[in-house]
Amino acid sequence: MAHSSSAGSPLRALVQIVRDWPVSSQQRARRNAMVATTSCAQRRVERQEVADFLATRPADHTDHTDRTDPEHRAGH
Question: What is the mean pLDDT of residues 9-35?
């Protein structure tokens, strides 16, 4: 008994999806890693810029306002 080519097609498609899954999964993982690395690098640059800015400020600050005070945060 001969099998028709259309009867095997869904099975072949499923097998191909299963075979392709590790490759596509790895590609997505690599892309996610590159996006995360870029984000981390940007944050590191921003932290360094803030550190550099704060290093240039005078050591004696005249503003000793308690920034945790609710009235100060509300803009009063």
Answer: 96
